[in-house]
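Operator note (shift B, R.M.): manual run for Glycosyltransferase requested after the automated queue skipped it. Running by hand, logging everything below so the morning shift can see what happened. Input copied straight from the record, untouched. If output looks odd, do not overwrite the archive copy; leave it for review.
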Amino acid sequence: MPSLHESARDEPAGLTTRTLIFGRAPVAGEAKTRLIPALGPAGAAALQEHLMADLLERLSEAPRARLELWAAPDASHPTFGDLARRHALSLHRQYGENLGQRLAHAARQGLTRADAVLLIGTDCPDLTADYLEMARERLRWSHAVLGPALDGGYVLLGFKRLSHHLFDGMPWGGDRVADLTRQRLRDLRWSWSELPALADIDRPEDLVLLPPGLQPPWPVLAHAAD
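Run finished. Output pasted below as returned.
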């Protein structure tokens, strides 16, 4: 495996990056389903919409990241069109039967337009433009970059070439995703850099981690804060 210094010598000075943002349509009963016990179907969908809008507002300050919005189950929901127009983003439909396939498909497309891709979701209220820039800079001297989530998943994964080994058969939604990703990076003999771990909002107990501007205006069941 090449050393980090060897990788740095081989890295072009003008690394171009695409940030692929994976969002789900805020449809009641289909969005943020693990939060439905606390927020109800409509409340969970509303939070999904708020998280997407807030993320794109923050990341619009990172022009070098070249944001793309990847929509599921398709790009027809008006929220996607509104956000894409507001932030001048390209809008794409996610393809694949599971999350791993959808991530790999989008990454393959993104790498036809840039030297590297950063894959992120919309569940992390602490992911900022500075965090993206840090990830982009780390890719100048490593094959990949990983932004772990506090729950054992990840909030960001970036790389300069695609390997399906990073996605196939991954137990998505579990607490071993980041550890398994690290092991698969070792299998590939890739160098990688890790960013600070951040919290994402997936379960009722995570709602206490929302910043004040994103606290739900709707009633939340008491057990969500236990």
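Quick read of the result: Residues 36-59 form the longest helix (24 residues). The mean pLDDT is 90.
Leaving this for review. - R.M.
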